[in-house]
Amino acid sequence: MNVTKIEIAISCTLYQKRLCWMMSSILQQKGNVPNIIFNVAYPQSNGNPTTENVCKLFKDNGLNVKETIYKNEVEIQKRGLVRNMQLKETDADWILFSDADMVYDPLFFEDLKNQLENTELKNETRCISAKRISLSKEYSKDYFNKIDKNIYPCIVPNVAQFVSKWPIFKISRSCGAGYFQLANVKNLKENCNGVYVDPQHCNDEAEFESYHKTRSDQQFRRLVGGTITIKTRPQYHLNHERDNEENCKHLLIQR
What residue ranges define each of the domains in the chain, with the CATH number in brackets? Predict the structure, then answer.
């Protein structure tokens, strides 16, 4: 089938700086790019800048942004339930569940579109995953906390080329926490009850209750019959502070 729409579904709580980098990389896609919808789930008035202001900037510059808004941070904690809502609202051909701290090579989505239209992937119903280049933790943290001179919200020029020169922490080939989980929307709605996870049995644990544990990604992969890994153009992970590494149940810092 021809890929007319790919929806990228993410959640953002206190990741507005890295979100600007991610959205910049999507604005900077080149070639035969599919219709990309960027769905941002977020709590109201969160962060500096707020996600509302980030979305407005990128909408004004031509990015197709859809906002899924929650009243507060507590309501958005269980990612599987947030992804249920994003899936319910989509009319895309494929939905890419990702994190709010990824940067894509400028030809990433042209290449992905070509694979989904012209290879056996066009009929794939399992979860499609791909490796990511996770950038150095200390370098990434130092850059955003000490070096970065950007005034946010902003569009970061040539963002993928810029981060491609950063030191690498590791190249991950596992599906991990869900930074790249691509799924056929038609299959999800016809054969999986139109959900990411059964809302009555979502195994996510919220940060306000204990250390954050996102287990719905594993539930999703079982729901669709497993995972297939493909080769893509580079996607870069802008590493950051984590609750367990900071010995904190709920890390309230801007990232």
Answer: 5-237 (3.90.550.10)
Provide the residue count of the chain.
255
pTM of the predicted model, to two decimals? 0.95
For residue 214, the model assigns a pLDDT of: 82
Helices 16-27, 51-60: inter-axial angle, 10-degree rounding: 10
Instruction: List residues bridging with 96 in a β-sheet.
Output: 8, 182
Contacts of 69 (CB under 8 A, 6+ apart): 41, 42, 43, 44
User: How distant, in Å, are the alpha carbons of 132, 138, 147 from that of 143?
Assistant: 20, 8, 5
Asked if residues 106 and 84 have their Cβ atoms less than 8 Å apart, the reply is no
**Higher local confidence (pLDDT), 51 or 206:** 51
Asked if 216 contacts 225 with a C-beta cutoff of 8 angstroms, the reply is: no
Question: Tell me, what's the pLDDT at 75?
Answer: 85
CA angle 3, 37, 188 (to 5 degrees): 60
Q: What is the reported pLDDT for 4?
A: 79
pLDDT, average across residues 6-32: 98
What does DSSP assign to residue 122?
Answer: G
Token digits of residue 120: 């056996």
